[in-house]
Amino acid sequence: MSNWTKIIWVALGLSTVAHAQEPPLPPCTLASYRAAAVPDVAKSWPIVARNAFDESGIAHPSLLISLLIAIESGGGASCLSAYLVDDLIRSPDGAITGRVVPTNRDHPVFFGDKIVVDPQMIIDWRYAESTNGPRYGDFQGRSLLNKTELEALGFSPDAMPPHWK
Question: What is the pLDDT of residues 104-149, one digit of tens each?
Fold first, then answer.
């Protein structure tokens, strides 16, 4: 299994977190909500939004975010489910859109859809400046793995690239 595959599995299986408080809706699956990482995600996202997009608004190709999206579960009850989003674009007014990555096997809705990203929906982000470069973000993975495991997976000791402000 590749390092990115391991990171994505950590993100999918363990990154379903609500922003700031308990989720307004229940989770769709028994995935654990790891609220301890949420303040770091909320605090860091504006820095990511300032630095990971080029002048034309295109995000670095490695930027991937994890969102909680309200969906209707079996029987029509609403619940929250985690989805990965890539192909991020920031418009001149600051709004961000992205494409839902087809990874949520429990709830395969929205796959490939373009969606508007509300920063309150973001439960994690991950980024690498190059293919073999250190990995940044992924607060959920950082909260679950020890230092040796993080180093083996290519994580930077710092969650944020040092030159980002």
Answer: 666 667 788 899 998 888 989 999 988 888 999 999 888 888 999 9
Contact 84, 65 (CB under 8 A): yes
- Provide the number of structural domains found in the chain: 1
DSSP labels, 39-89: HHHHHHHHHHHHHSB-TTSBBPTT-EEEEEEEEE-GGG-EEEEEEEEEEEE
Residue 36's domain spans which residues? Answer: 3-152
Task: Evaluate whether residue 15 is within a structural domain.
Answer: yes
8-43 exposure pattern, b = at least 16 Cβ within 10 A, e = fewer: bebbbebbbbbbeeebebebbbebebbeebbebbee
In a domain, 158, yes or no: no
Q: Read off the pTM.
A: 0.75
| In-domain check, residue 160 | no
Query: Residue 159 falls within a domain, yes or no?
Result: no
**Token pair recorded at residue 87:** 């192909």
